[in-house]
Amino acid sequence: MPELPEVEVVRAGLAPHLLGRTIKQVRVLHPRAVRRHLLGAEDFANALAGRTFAEPRRRGKYLWFPFEQGPALLAHLGMSGQLLVDGESPHARVIFDLDDGSRLVFADQRTFGGMWLASGRAPVPEEISHIAPDLFEIADLEPLAARMATGGRAVKRLLLDQTVVSGIGNIYADEALWLAKTHYLAPAETLGQTGMLAVLRAAREVMAQALSAGGTSFDALYVNAAGEPGYFGRELAVYGREGQPCRRCAAAIVREPFMGRSSFRCPSCQAIG
DNA sequence: ACGCATACCTGAGTGC
DNA sequence: TGCACTCAGGTATGCG
């Protein structure tokens, strides 16, 4: 389940391989992988042949690949997507044959991810204009914290809402809330700008640590462009640790259903209210 | 505007 | 051993 740090590791790993490389041929092995390209797999493949890669970019969990000419290639890894240089995978969905003989492989076991072509050459493609800037793009978090600290929505719902702030998924949301000693159900307005700012700073800190460690390998599906798993130097505090002791106070971590998934928290450090 | 549910997907894990 | 079932979750969509 790649979130912002893992996607950034992929982007940074691909950049030196792709910059200046020209696509010779595109092979779509699984049409579902390009379902968001409404003109179809054949158009997708034909439109990309002959294009030369510029610097890959990212916002939140979305990647896009601008070219020297024409609209950018958009990509989302979904739950299990991988972008591999010269990789082998039983779940290869799209293969890009490049002019130096190497291959870019989009593999995706669960096929929640996908690739498609942007409609224009806007700096940030229109297709992802609804995605908010992420915590690595925003220099000053205070205005965002002020905007978020209103209304009665649960703070975790806001963190996961990619139109509010992007890049945070279930794992880093729980890790950030633990670091900020905040209950995931706390209504936004009860945190105040100060409390919300603390949560955002915690999220940025946790993700920055993960990024510097090369991403979190919470399961075998996440690998970088060379096919290597991530390594999270700082161990996870709460995610997946139901029943195990809180690293601050030793209380047993609890797991609770929220938004159709699991939330993990320390019942003592992150009490309600 | 918000909250909630559902669809999409497959491999791993669990229980019988 | 095998079968049925549950779980994992990011995004888009639709309903109340």
Largest sheet composition:
4 strands, antiparallel
The number of strands is: 10
Distance between the termini: 30 Å
The radius of gyration over CA amounts to 20 Å
Placed side by side, the strands forming the largest sheet appear as: 1-6-7-5
Uncertain segments of ≥5 residues (pLDDT<50)? none
The CATH class name of the largest domain reads Alpha Beta
The number of helical elements comes to 6
- From the spread of the alpha carbons, the general shape counts as elongated
Q: Strand share of the residues?
A: 15-25%
What order do the helices and strands follow? HEHEEEEEEEHHHHEE
Tell me the CATH superfamily of the largest domain. MutM-like, N-terminal
> Could you name the CATH topology of the largest domain?
N-terminal domain of MutM-like DNA repair proteins
Helix content: 25-40%
Q: What's the CATH architecture of the largest domain? A: Alpha-Beta Barrel
Structural class: alpha+beta
